[in-house]
Amino acid sequence: MIISNQIVKKLVTEDFSEEILKNVMAVLEMRPVMKKSIAGFLTEKEACDYCGNISRSTLWHWKRRGLKSYKLGGRCLYSPADLDRFIYSADPVDTAEKVEG
């Protein structure tokens, strides 16, 4: 009981990032904790979530159409700014046709 009171007190009085809160929830729910990506970059899964929960194949198609990605230690990382730039500069009809076709 003392530990839960300490946790509640910290949650109320301190400022935590959303990533830290997600990791705490993962531990409490006994799920695996996500590997931390390089500051400012998103992993493939995080990029898919960031873009509105798109599929990995859609992300792959976007990469073929010019979406910038960065390789680091065998991992493919994405910049949120690059994702925004690609999404807002792409023709929605052309993007949908390319992805579906």
What's the short version?
With 101 residues, this protein is mainly α. The protein has six helices and two strands, in the order ααααββαα.
Task: Name the features.
101 residues; mainly alpha; 2 domains; two-stranded antiparallel sheet; elongated
Question: What does it look like?
Answer:
This protein is mainly alpha-helical and 101 residues long. The chain has two domains: 1-34; 44-100, no CATH class. The protein has six helices and two strands; from the N terminus they run ααααββαα. It has helices at 2-13, 18-28, 44-50, 56-64, 80-89, 92-100; strands at 70-72, 75-77. Strands 1-2 form a two-stranded antiparallel ribbon. Strand 1 (70-72) and strand 2 form a beta hairpin. It is elongated and about 55 Å long. The termini are far apart. The model has no long low-confidence stretch (mean pLDDT 77).
